[in-house]
Design brief:
Residues 1-278 form the AP-5 complex subunit zeta-1 N-terminal TPR domain. One of its GO terms (cellular component) is AP-5 adaptor complex. This is Adaptor related protein complex 5 subunit zeta 1. It comes from Scleropages formosus (Asian bonytongue). The chain has 772 residues and is mainly alpha-helical. 66% of the residues lie in helices and 0% in strands. The protein is built from 42 helices and no strands.
């Protein structure tokens, strides 16, 4: 949200009148004359113009003369940088920029080129001219000129916006330049800026070799992990080149995979030594793209070797970890484009994994290593189970509170769902552990896990996965207690509120509760049953104070938590039965147990009502050929007993604790079942005839309103009238699945329900024309 002062300025900028705006434009045009640009009013007016242009929803069309002045100011190398920044920002937000005046010229410095290029990228669709200028500056690059340092970031933006703007010759030119910068940068330190002083002299400015992160002198070529007091221009280009090499390879190296010759060569020369010898001595003979691939691979190998050195500063240690992630990722890209690199890369990757696998500080580096194993372990016939066991079991259990790792881990699983499900046997068994990231970092990861969950489903663990999702608040509470147990007692006082933390930690260590905690924090599926013993922990008071308290924080108070939960289940139950009606027969035993227990009505009425409706709708031969009269009779007798029990209300009894809707659904379902087994019609008709005495009883009349009672009686009378004509009742209460599609000319059996619908619709329409 904006502060009140900022909101006021934005409102003024949006509501400025046209007359005032024209006067303001004229004032800026005068200020932007070459002799008046340096004044303080110019800066203030450009800042206000920037606000006016950006505050408008659809942008503003500036006068042509003002556009020309702004573009001249932007393109002039002698303009103050602050004014160039403002003019660039204004032109990006405005409409109808003059493309001819934005042309880049050879005399412009790198700063001006970058500001002009940003406007071109935002306003111009055709980027050929910009690409030509950028590549021309690269081709004429000199070590002491800083233009190229600005060119590569702009070129990276061009690749993202319009990769086809570069021709094949342009791609080869950039590839050659990237090779030179990656592999042949100077190993001497650049001349650092002098701070002045009495002892400053020529000897203090003599170049010295760059060093490794541990302080030793570099013995190989320069990389981003080399340390120095200052850097030369080609060393800066080395760093810029490495920062964009991944995007470059992904954009321009995909279609350039070596063709049949390389495949034949890898089949014949399968050994590592032959491949190394084939690439080491003849790299200069390779085409530009393949040579870049080779040098980028060597660069990444060098970074992995440098990461083994102990950094003298923490900032260098953090840089090592970041470079490892990038290096392994680039090597993975190269190996996907040319399989011959796989055999050269795996010894290096395996050694790296063995070195860092036991150090949690390198946890984020394991993700690209796992990606490399996932992509290439079959090619190299390398066992990857150890890598994925650590990834799927150790990471979520030990690092669930690392939010960035949780996001990157989830993105990794989403990107590789199909491959993980097919080739990593541990993946679907690890969902109790993977859900720890969701439990701790929810709701930030909810959308990611919605996409991820289908890949974790398996017939043998589907029910356990469902219960694990329902138990997420309990899992979050258990993780919270586990995390607090690692802190010293002096720090726990900061979290302790009324002794809750102390009692929770004591319970965490007690053998009586240990089994439950081990189940909640389990690493893989199939190691226990669902939680069904909550009441025994409530007696001690601990469960209510801690786990249920966590439920309150996540989903509200426990009784209200069940209501939306049952509503969600009810909604999806209807969708599921509609897609798979045979589920009623497949789960008939479970459904009979559930609907036969009247206690489910008082605690799960929403779910119970939908379940009864689904039975009446889908329990028929048309949906499952295994459905018999015996099945229909069994369900009828179960629901009949339930309806009889809840409608037997004495004058002294308490009012009913269920809604009238449940009564109408039960009556309708019994009528539907009776229409399919006509021997049951007398029983349900007798029952329906007694509903008047039920609705007129004292407790029911006190609880239900007059409209509710009338609705129950009306439904009972309608059903009784239908059941007097059994053949009609069967078609009305249970029309065929094709009843919604017109087939009058083909099948007379489907004509009655649809005819009734059409006639009913016509009658309803005609009532508007009847005289009142």
């Amino acid at each position: 949200m904006y502060a009140s002062g900022s909101e006021s300025l934005i409102k003024q900028a949006r509501e400025i009148q046209q007359e005032e705006l024209r006067s303001f434009y004229s004032k800026i045009c005068k200020l932007l004359q070459p002799q008046g640009r340096e004044g303080g009013d110019t800066l203030d007016c450009l800042q206000r113009l920037r606000l006016i242009v950006s505050a408008h929803k659809y942008g503003r069309t500036l006068p042509v003369d003002l556009l020309k002045r702004l573009q001249d100011l932007l393109c002039c190398p002698s303009s103050p940088e602050q004014l160039q920044v403002l003019s660039s920002s204004i032109l990006r937000e405005s409409i109808a920029v003059c493309e001819d005046r934005l042309a880049l010229r050879d005399h412009q410095d790198g700063r001006t080129v970058s500001y002009v290029a940003v406007v071109i990228l935002a306003q111009v669709d055709e980027l050929t001219g910009l690409c030509h200028h950028l590549l021309k500056s690269l081709e004429c690059w000199q070590p002491d000129v800083q233009v190229s340092r600005h060119v590569l970031p702009i070129l990276s933006r061009v690749i993202a916006c319009s990769p086809h703007s570069l021709s094949e010759d342009h791609v080869n030119l950039v590839s050659r330049k990237l090779v030179d910068w990656l592999r042949y940068a100077s190993v001497q330190q650049g001349i650092a800026a002098s701070s002045g002083g009495f002892f400053t002299g020529p000897r203090t400015r003599q170049p010295v070799p760059v060093t490794e992160v541990d302080g030793t002198v570099v013995g190989d070529f320069f990389t981003v992990l080399c340390v120095g007091q200052g850097f030369t221009e080609d060393q800066w280009m080395n760093m810029y080149a490495f920062s964009m090499i991944r995007k470059w390879l992904l954009t321009y190296d995909i279609e350039e995979t070596s063709s049949g010759d390389t495949d034949d060569k890898s089949e014949v020369d399968g050994s590592v030594m032959s491949m190394v010898s084939a690439t080491s001595s003849s790299s200069r003979m390779l085409p530009p793209k393949e040579r870049l691939r080779e040098k980028a691979f060597e660069y990444c190998q060098r970074l992995i070797e440098q990461s083994d050195r102990k950094a003298a500063k923490k900032v260098d240690s953090d840089l090592q970890k970041a470079c490892l992630v990038e290096a392994v990722t680039v090597m993975d890209i190269i190996c996907k484009e040319d399989a011959s690199f796989v055999y050269r890369a795996f010894p290096c990757i395996k050694a790296l994994y063995g070195r860092i696998s036991g150090d949690l500080a390198f946890s984020r580096t394991l993700l690209p290593i796992a990606q490399f194993y996932l992509n290439h372990s079959e090619t190299a016939a390398v066992d990857s189970e150890g890598v994925f066991r650590q990834l799927l079991f150790s990471f979520p259990a030990d690092l669930f509170n690392e939010s960035m790792l949780a996001f990157e881990f989830t993105q990794f699983c989403r990107a590789n769902m199909a491959v993980l499900r097919e080739r990593v046997t541990l993946y679907r068994q690890s969902f109790p552990n993977l859900l720890k990231f969701l439990a701790w970092n929810s709701p930030a990861l909810v959308s990611e896990y919605v996409e991820l969950l289908p890949s974790l489903l398996a017939p043998e663990t589907a029910i356990e996965l469902l219960h694990s999702l329902l138990d997420l608040p309990c899992l979050a509470a258990a993780l919270d207690i586990q995390l607090r147990s690692f802190y010293p007692s002096s720090d726990r006082a900061l979290w302790d509120q009324g002794g809750r933390t102390t009692s929770s930690l004591e319970a965490f260590r007690q053998p009586y509760y240990r089994g439950m905690f081990l189940y909640i924090l389990r690493l893989e599926a199939g190691t226990g049953d669902t939680i069904d013993r909550n009441s025994q922990y409530g007696d001690d008071g601990w469960w209510e104070r801690d786990v249920v308290a966590k439920c309150h924080l996540s989903l509200g108070s426990l009784p209200f938590r069940c209501i939306p939960l049952h509503r969600v289940f009810s909604f999806h139950l209807l969708l599921l039965c509609k897609l798979q009606p045979s589920l009623i027969m497949d789960l008939s035993r479970e459904l009979l147990d559930f609907t036969g227990a009247t206690t489910n009505i008082y605690h799960k009425e929403e779910l119970y009502t939908h379940m009864v409706w689904a039975i009446g709708e889908y329990l028929r031969v048309g949906h499952d050929s295994h459905c018999t009269v015996e099945h229909i009779t069994t369900f009828f007798e179960t629901l009949e007993a339930v309806l009889f029990e809840i409608t037997q209300v004495r004058q002294s009894a308490s009012p009913p604790l269920y809604s009238p809707r449940l009564i109408t659904v039960l009556m309708t379902t019994l009528a539907k079942l009776a229409s399919r087994s006509q021997d049951l019609i007398p029983r349900v008709s007798l029952f329906l005839s007694k509903m008047r005495s039920f609705t007129h009883s004292g407790p029911v009349a006190a609880c239900f309103g007059e409209e509710d009672s009338e609705e129950i009686l009306t439904r009972a009378q309608e059903l009784m009238n239908l059941l007097k004509l059994p053949n009609v009742a069967q078609f009305v209460l249970a029309p065929s699945a094709q009843g919604s599609s017109p087939r009058w000319h083909r099948d007379s059996n489907t004509s009655l329900p649809l005819s009734m619908q059409v006639l009913s619709g016509l009658l309803q329409k005609q009532t508007n024309f009847l005289p009142g």
